[in-house]
Amino acid sequence: MKLRGIDLNLLVTVDMLLDEAHVGRAAERLGLSQPAASNALARARALFGDPLLVRAPNGLRRTPRADAMREPLRAALAELARIVTAGPPDLESLRGAVRLVASDVPAAALGAALTAELAKRAPGIDLIFHPWHAGDEVRRLERGEVDLVITVASASYAPLWTERLGTYPYAIIMRRDHPAAAVETFDLDCWLAFPHIVVSGRGDQQGSVDEALARIGRQRRVAAVAPTFLHALELLCDTDLLAAFPTGVMESNVAAWLTCRPVPLTLAPVSLHLVRHHRTDLDPAVTLVAELVRAIAPQLRGKEARVLA
Prior knowledge:
10 helices; alpha/beta; 12 strands
């Protein structure tokens, strides 16, 4: 049964009905009319598939199912009340670690700002970046191995929630003194005249860029495959290779030696998402790091918007 279909007010009424084992007294304590309390009992019976209260010589008595659920229900309502009435957490007193998975460029671009903000806001929280394994980051979140994931994959299904952090267009990236950087008109033929580098954790030589080229009857020469963007950017600094990457990669320090040109081909932009599991909804440390990621990401988008300006 989905919790979103349950009326919490009904559970409060059920708790009182089970405590009193009497519709009239329960109604009086709750400030309800007796018909309203009777209606709530009927709805509760349908919800739990049990009579809960049955007639006895001296009035009503609880069923075995009602006796079994009485204390757990009361404890659950008490915990919910504590959560609702609790004040904001004392961030400076928090202790623990938040485990984050992101590919190399987002980890590098966000990591310094995240670490600095945590040191100011919650110095007892450690930030642990887990290794990136292409394709299984969301499954690791589901298994509880990590707390947050920054990925291009959107995971919009229960019990996960996803928030878009930014959308990044593609650009052609090369070293600043690359022969193509001085070309007055950087067109498709100029782009395809040079060897290319791609990034793939699996060693694949082709991807979405090659699919787009194939649709117009063209192809490129992929001369190198790197396992990470930072590795690829380092290679771009010292070779005549070209890369068609999302502009977000220009947030790395090595980008100071690189330049960009518009892609002479229509390519769909790439979106970056923050994915979280509902098991950490009440974890103040994970909540804080998620808030900081959301706050820092727009600043990066502003920088990236100027890359091709």
